[in-house]
Amino acid sequence: MTEKDLSPERQRDIIDAFKEDSNAFEEVYNFYYEQIMRYIAKRSMSSELAYDLTAETFIKAFESFHRFEYRGISIKVWLYRIAINTLRSHWRKPKTSALGELTETHPELATNMHSELEELNEALFGDEKLGQLSDAIATLNPNYQNIISLYYFSGMSQEEIGKTINRSTSAVKSMMHRAMTALRDVLAS
Fold first, then answer.
1. Which of these, 151, 156, 154, lies nearest to 176 by C-alpha position?
2. Which end of the chain has the smaller Cβ count within 10 Å, N or C?
3. Rounded percentage of the chain residues whose pLDDT exceeds 90
C-alpha cells in the first residue's frame, strides 16, 4: 500500500533542505503528484484539464514553498488547498485549451499527448458506474463535491479535510452527511 503522507519529520527535513537547495521540492512533487492529479481529474472529469491544473498547482506550490512552515498542517493538506483554489480559479476564467495550442505549434507532441490522455481517461473514468457517480457528484454544490472527492477519491480523513477547507471536524461530518444525502437524492432520481 502506498503511503498517503510523508512523516512530519521528513516534511520538516524537506522544508529545511529547500532553504539551501530548491531541488528538495522534487521529493514533494514526486510523492504527491499522483494524489493531486487524481483529485483534480475526478473533480474536473477531464484528463487534459487535470494535467494543466496539476502543473499549475505544483508551480504555485514551488513558488511559495519558501514561505511554508510545518505547524501541524502537512504539505499534503497545503497542496490540496492550492489544488482546490486552482480549480476554483479555473472555473471562473474563460476556457482555453493548452492541448489545442500545442496542436497548432507542435503537432507531433500533441499526437503523443492525445494518446496519453486517452489512456488516462480510460484509467480514471473507464468504469461506467464510476462515470455515472462522477456525473451525479458534478451536479452537487461545489462544497459538497469537494468533501466527497477529498474523502472518497483522495482518501483524506475528516480531520485532514477540515484542515484543508478550514473547517472543524464536526462541520466536515455535518457537511459529509448533507452531501451524501444530496448525492443519494440525485442518484435516486
1. 151
2. N
3. 35
pTM: 0.66
At residue 42, the pLDDT reads: 83
Number of domains in the chain: 2
Range of the domain at 167: 128-189
CB 16 within 8 A of CB 29: no
CB atoms closer than 10 angstroms to residue 23 = 9
Q: Give me the amino acid identity at 23.
A: N
2: pLDDT strictly greater than 50: no
Burial of 84 (0-12, 13-18, 19+ CB in 10 A): buried
CATH number at residue 90: 1.10.1740.10
Residue 6 CA to residue 27 CA, distance in Å, equals 10
Residues 114 and 43 in one domain: yes
81 contacts: CB under 8 Å, gap ≥ 6 = 164, 165
Cα angle value 154/68/73 (rounded, 5°): 45
Give the other-Cβ count within 10 Å of 121's Cβ: 16
The residue behind cell 508551480 is 59
Instruction: Report d(CA 53, CA 166) in Å as an integer.
Output: 22
